[in-house]
Amino acid sequence: MTGDADLSVVAAALADRGRARMVLAVTDGRALPASALAAEAGVSAATASTHLRRLVEAGVLRAEQHGRFRYFRLAGPEVADLVEALGRVSPPQPVRSLREGTRAHALRLARACYDHVAGRLGVALTDALLDAGYLVGGDGTDSGRRDGDRLPGLDVVDYALTPAGRTALVALEVRVPDAGPVPVRCCVDWTEQRHHVAGPLGRALFTTMTDRGWVRPARRSRALTVTDAGRDALVGTLGLVWPPPHGPSRVPAERTALSRT
Fold first, then answer.
1. Which of 57, 156, 198, 242 could be disulfide-bonded to 144 (CB atoms 3.0-4.6 Å)?
2. CATH number of 6-75
């Protein structure tokens, strides 16, 4: 038998700023070598080794051996969910330089959240699906209530992909899950305080966008660069507003190309 969850183990592992920066660096699903994570945290190789061992022992990261080198990635999607939830209640890091400001802006505009798109782009994509009637069950906000109390950060909305949505996404070569009703998981975006599509459908959309060259991962961060071809496709094919708006409020967009396909 085991007792209740010992939250202190994971909390203590994340309590160091250097270790937290290491975890943030791999929340896009990549595996990075210890040297890259040491640079991200701004610590020596020896200190990085100690930090990484602590994170692996806590079940936050897992290590993989590739030849002579060890790479580290998130232990699973549940850790990405935890990081997103913590981000929603954590104060922002101060921006002290133009470089840090540029990076912060890029992360908020578009980033990878484990295996799906997040940031303003992820929210705008979800809004486009909702406005076209391809996704139903909510309005893109996290305003679900239970027993009269708001539950911030908890996904209590049941979204579903409609038959028309399946047809439209298949036409775009998105590998929609097997036939039948498709429940769609959405998680609350920590910068926008609104829902973005996650789960199997979110992964399928992200795969299509990367395969088609619509978005390109940054080399040293989890930010995504939207290419010119991607911007044209997102606006002309998916009906997104560009640049995507930001913030918790939502004004439904006019139905554009997505609703007419």
1. 156
2. 1.10.10.10
